[in-house]
Amino acid sequence: MIDLSNLSPNPGAKKKAKRVGRGDTTAGKGTKGQKARSGGAKPRWFEGGQMPLYRRLPKRGFKNPFRKEYQVVNLDRLDALFDEGAEIDKEALKAKGLIRKADKPVKILARGEINKPLTVKVDAVSASAKEKIEAAGGKVLLLAAPKEEKGDSES
Questions:
Q1: Where are the domains of the chain?
Q2: Disordered: where is this region (predicted)?
Q3: What integer best gives the mean pLDDT of the chain?
């Protein structure tokens, strides 16, 4: 009877790995050719001399080093988590778990509806979000971004 304790592969089905680099002369690598030389392995992306894919495709776009990354909060979350007349700033948003870091800029976006007056103090607000907040009787106060000096201070 066959069960898991006496299963074994067929004879000759499992091949021992060749231990290259042992012994004299060719050291198990056959004769000559690139693969027999030291450092003779080609990189995996090598296409046999054909123009490689990464050079056939055009370069596109760039990563803007001056991009401002905002932490985004939508109006539906503000409406659900804050009481009427609440003053919302970065610390309040962090306390409610809507943002991770109070030192990074915050932007309010207009997804959802807001039905109570709120005072919002953040770094940026979309035009439609500002419209909705003010229509509900709330106020939007934008925090002044710290000025960054460009170039050398000494001239």
A1: 71-142
A2: 1-51
A3: 90
